Amino acid sequence: MPTKTMTALRDPARRSKVVAAARTAGTAALALGVFGSIITAAGNAADDVQPAALKETLAAAAPAVAPADARPAVVPAPAPMPQPEPIPAPAAPVYPNNLDGWIRQALDIMHAKGIPGSYDGIYRNIIRESSGNPQAINLYDSNAAMGIPSKGLLQVIDPTFAAYHVEGTVFDVWDPVANIVAACNYAAHRYGSMDNVFSAY
């Protein structure tokens, strides 16, 4: 008795479909078999790799890692900046050994000590008292009669010079600078400044 399948194959259209389906199934089976062979071959190849060769391959592929005790390179510190040259102290002024130099040196000392006075005031009184002679001496006035004659540029007696001598000058009434400074110190205490003296003082 013929089956339904046998009956279907007698129909040409159905027979063609069946043949096509069989061919497709055969191709898929063939492909599956080839793929399985490839996987098996790959597995066998992996099994054949020697451990040493595998390690070398892995080591070559691995990124380089620095040793655990490696230290970063030491960067040298920048060179220190050169120190600026020291500023030299201003040179001490040099005063000429004449009336102008004596007055200017006396004024510098007076300014440092807070003693008032001007160049013109000092110069005016020196010309009146001694005509600019540091060795001038008055042997004829009342002071001379008492044995304490007036001496030097600004005609200072010894007791006045001793009382108003200014530290930083020599203790010598005949010294032009010491004489000027002591006389100006005395005039500052009595008249406010040598600038205020216009006659014998």
Name the helix and strand elements from N-terminus to C-terminus, one letter apiece.
HHHHHEHEHH
Helix content range of the residues, please? 40-55%
Largest sheet: 2 strands, antiparallel
What value does the average pLDDT take? Answer: 79
Rg calculated over all Cα atoms: 62 Å
Q: What do these coordinates show?
A:
With 201 residues, the chain is mostly helical. The chain has eight helices and two strands. It has a two-stranded antiparallel sheet. The longest helix has 37 residues, at 12-48. It is rod-shaped, with a radius of gyration of 62 Å. The N and C termini lie far apart (173 Å).
Index terms:
201 residues; mainly alpha; two-stranded antiparallel ribbon; rod-shaped
In brief, what are we looking at here?
Helices cover 54% and strands 2% of the residues.
Summarize the topology.
Blueprint (H helix, E strand, L loop, with lengths): L3 H6 L2 H37 L2 H11 L37 H15 L5 H12 L6 E2 L3 H4 L4 E2 L6 H7 L11 H16 L10
Antiparallel strand pairs: 1-2
